[in-house]
Automatic annotation (TrEMBL):
One of its GO terms (molecular function) is catalytic activity. It comes from Armillaria ostoyae (Armillaria root rot fungus). This is Endonuclease/exonuclease/phosphatase domain-containing protein. Residues 115-249 form the Endonuclease/exonuclease/phosphatase domain. Pfam families: Exo_endo_phos_2. InterPro entries: Endo/exonu/phosph_ase_sf, Endo/exonuclease/phosphatase. The lineage of its organism: Eukaryota, Fungi, Dikarya, Basidiomycota, Agaricomycotina.
Length: 262
């Protein structure tokens, strides 16, 4: 949870994120729910398991953020975010988006407001990227929140994009003209909003069921100014649930200095 360490002379607050594509599997989703720790703050799920009642399974202590138009057709939802009850609802809110492939929230940190994007994009469409791009442009234009503090971005999820910037060189067979053109659009978005990649390059996030090949389809991007706050961003290969070929991106841990607050 975002936590002020009272006995720490540097007065820091921490934010812990957990990301996983559960492949619409109840088994994988249940495993994820059982792995969640009390100090996890935000769980970013792609291709969630949605029940016949149109709901996401979650344990007590977690609030579910669905896409804005989830109720229209729940089984088209491909991104859901869970927020720990320990995060005061006075510090965060969901952001309206016209897509079922992304969920976005704003979270007040000591020296900025963080816009956290949870996105799923299949390999045949960039519509959700365009939606996110438009939303980020809006906050970039606003520049500052009601506290007079700047907006910063974390964009994380399953992008289904291959590029030699993050994929291992041995996966050069994936760098087709079409794939590189697609990834180029993502890189334009990343560059336009001055985003960096806290998850180091060449760390795979998926092992394909069919071939066993390791690739990097999931990724994390953040505002340049936020990069120093990431004290850890890695993959937990041992925590991969059954029935999904994705690995959890966790822990993804940020630390903010309270002394930055004026």
């Amino acid at each position: 949870m975002i936590d002020t360490t009272d006995n720490n002379p540097t007065d820091t607050m921490k934010l812990k994120l957990y990301q996983l594509n559960v492949n619409k599997s109840l088994t994988a989703h249940s495993c994820l729910i059982n792995q969640i720790q009390q100090d996890d703050d935000v769980i970013l799920i792609q291709e969630p398991y949605i029940s016949k009642q149109g709901k996401l399974r979650a344990t007590q202590g977690w609030l579910s953020i669905y896409p804005t138009n989830h109720e229209q057709n729940p089984h088209l939802t491909r991104a859901v975010t869970l927020v720990n009850w320990s995060l005061s609802t006075n510090t965060w809110s969901s952001i309206v988006l016209d897509t079922q492939d992304a969920v976005t929230m704003s979270l007040q940190a000591p020296a900025e407001t963080i816009i956290i994007v949870n996105i799923y994009s299949d390999g045949d469409s960039m519509v959700s990227w365009n939606t996110i791009d438009a939303m980020l442009k809006k906050y970039t234009a606003k520049q500052r929140d009601e506290r007079g503090l700047p907006y910063r971005f974390i964009c994380t999820g399953d992008w289904n994009a291959h590029h030699h910037i993050w994929d291992e060189p041995r996966n050069s067979h994936l760098f087709t003209d079409r794939a590189l053109e697609r990834a180029g659009h993502l890189l334009q978005l990343v560059g336009r909003h001055h985003l960096k990649m806290p998850l180091p390059a060449f760390i795979p996030t998926l092992r394909a069921f069919s071939t066993g090949n390791y690739t990097r389809v999931n990724n994390v991007f953040c505002s340049d100014e936020l990069l120093p706050a990431f004290i850890q961003c890695t993959i937990d290969y041992a925590a991969q649930p059954p029935r999904t070929d994705h690995f959890p991106i966790q822990p993804c841990l940020l630390e903010f200095c309270m002394k930055c607050v004026s």
